[in-house]
Amino acid sequence: MKNQQPIPSAETQQEAMRIAKSTQKPGQTKEQTRLVAQGIEKGIALYKKQQKEKKRQADKAQKKQRREKLKPAITDHTEPSDSVSPQAVTPPSRLPWGLLTISWIGFAAYVFFLHS
């Protein structure tokens, strides 16, 4: 079953016949032209098969690259929590707390001077 040739589409057959007729030599019979058209059909089918295989290989390579890119991110998240890496531990930022403190001091001063 695998070795069975796929039937070319009507469009491919018409294109092959058009090419065969355009390259037809004087005195060439219809049977010879038909055989030339069949050869062209086979060539078109082979070309399409090769292009499909190239596309499949490119897709596989692209998927493999995506998997390789995602692999480090996935392995970082699956590590046990006991082994904490130095990158994961960041000291808390003092800026938000400082701004909050300054804003409360400013608010208290505003309320104190407004009512005094």
Rounded radius of gyration (Å): 37 Å
What class, by secondary structure content? mainly alpha
- SSE string: HHH
Uncertain segments of ≥5 residues (pLDDT<50)? none
Q: Estimate the helix proportion, in percent.
A: over 70%
Write down the overall geometry.
Answer: rod-shaped
Indicate the proportion of strand residues.
under 5%
Name the average pLDDT.
Answer: 82
Counted beta strands: 0
- Assembly state (oligomeric): single chain
- Main sheet overview: none
Q: Can you count the helices?
A: 3
Distance between the termini: 98 Å
What descriptors fit this protein?
mainly alpha; 3 helices; 116 residues; rod-shaped; single chain
Q: Layout of helices and strands, plus pairs?
A:
Layout: H1 10-22, H2 30-77, H3 95-115
Helix pairs in contact: 1-2
